[in-house]
Amino acid sequence: MVPRSCTTTPTPSVVQPGRWDQVVLQESSTQPLLVARTGQPASFLTYATRLEQAVHTGSHAARVYLFQTWPRADMTYPAGQPYSGLPLDTMMRDLRRAYAYLAAQNSCFAAVAPVGDAWLRAIQAGVAQRNPYNPCPGPLNLWGPDHFHASKWGSCLAVCVLFAQLTSLDPRLLGPTEQAAVALGITAAAAVALQQIAFQQVFAPAGPLPVVLTAFAAQRQATGVHLRWATASEQQNARFEVQRNADGRAIATLPGGGTTFQPTSYTLLDAAALPALYYRLRQVDVGGTSTLSPVVAMGPGAVAPVLLYPNPARERLLITGVAATAPSHAQPPRPAIAPGQYARRAGHRRAGRPARRPLPPGAGNGLRPRTAHVCARVRSVRISANRH
Description:
Blueprint: E1 22-26, H1 41-58, E2 63-67, H2 88-105, E3 109-113, H3 115-124, H4 152-167, H5 179-183, H6 188-203, E4 211-221, E5 224-244, E6 249-260, E7 264-270, E8 277-285, E9 290-292, E10 296-298, E11 307-309, E12 316-320, E13 355-358, E14 366-375, E15 378-386
Parallel strand pairs: 1-2, 2-3
Antiparallel strand pairs: 4-5, 5-6, 5-7, 5-8, 8-9, 8-10, 11-12, 12-15, 13-14, 14-15
């Protein structure tokens, strides 16, 4: 329910009448800045609030997000500009503070979509160029030719952040062959790197990003299983430990690249002859902090472990790692779902499109799955409070 204070301003004509589920407000990149930096912060606060109120006038339950814009190279690197002589981080700091202040002053905003912070994170991780006026080979240029608007890579990053923020789903599930990225000519490695930056920014904004992993795959050959993985950048990466099967036993250790902003590839041949194998990487930095990669399943009967996230879930719970192989006529028992628990149901992949099936309602109070969208090994389950 939207507070009364959020519905007292008449609807501006720019907001079309109707019911809205989610609305994203994107401001000019200069309005939120300080007056000394050519900004108009008072106008930014006033009109962002009026637009929010206009949306909630007709759609009280709508979730309204603020699109945090990115720092501009054209306002930083040329002489005579508001941020000349200062790092990009300074402009991003001012933008971050402005959006955080607005969100703190008006609780009717659902959240700030941290596109600008993801932009800076990509630069700090070595995935993207810091100065497009003096480019270096390798990193992506997030700005377009005017050094102001987004390039195709910048747009891809922004969309991944919005996807994660609005759906609470992991943008890495879009994968290297995501249709828009392919249509724009974005390489698989670049798409995966941008998706990982977006995931890190939305779901773990305070966490470090020591290694940007862009690929991890296994392929059985005559001499064993060939493992290969690649990174877009590494910061203080001491080593990779290759773990096999459920016990997490390390079968090999490869030295990391330390700190590098160049793409790096790794390979390992495992001579194991087991029919079903599971692999994952344990990346360890120089301080001893470790991070685990997703699990790669290899061989007949090998099924990746189940992962459920985000936790806590707001409207959707993502279940990954469950093979969708049950025949269409299978009717498993209806599960009773106690408070705080989740349930899953096997589905099948129809030819040419994902299967969509309603899940049976849970018994008693708690969370009730409403709809499951089954597609290969990824399921998105809508959940709602079940009250009697």
